[in-house]
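Example record for the data management plan.
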Amino acid sequence: MVLIAGRKVFGAAMALFEKRVTIFKKRDRETWAQIKKVLRDAGLRGVRASHYLQDVVMAGGCGAKLDPRDFGAKGKIDRDIYYVEVRESDEETARELLRRAGIVASIEDDLMVDAALRKHRADKYYPQ
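Corresponding structural encoding:
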């Protein structure tokens, strides 16, 4: 039980207000699907797994939104960023379940950073 706005909140409603922790954030659909399956099969509740488009939609019309990289031999490129969030109280349980399944859940912090800036940062902190 927890008090929210002076009212007692129990059970499922409490899960709505619990802080979530990101345990996976990457451009890797296969690993994301494996993580979702492992957590769902274990019966872990309060897992939020989704994805969003990385690129900003280009302005313009008349085909300006077409990306020539989408017309290659392998078809459209998957630019989505996949993430999995769990309740803070279930973080250790989720990490243990993933460890037992042999899945490495990682977070890439520079997914939305420009490639040139990423290279500049790498050169600055890891000179060759």
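Summary line stored alongside the record: The first helix runs from residue 11 to 16.
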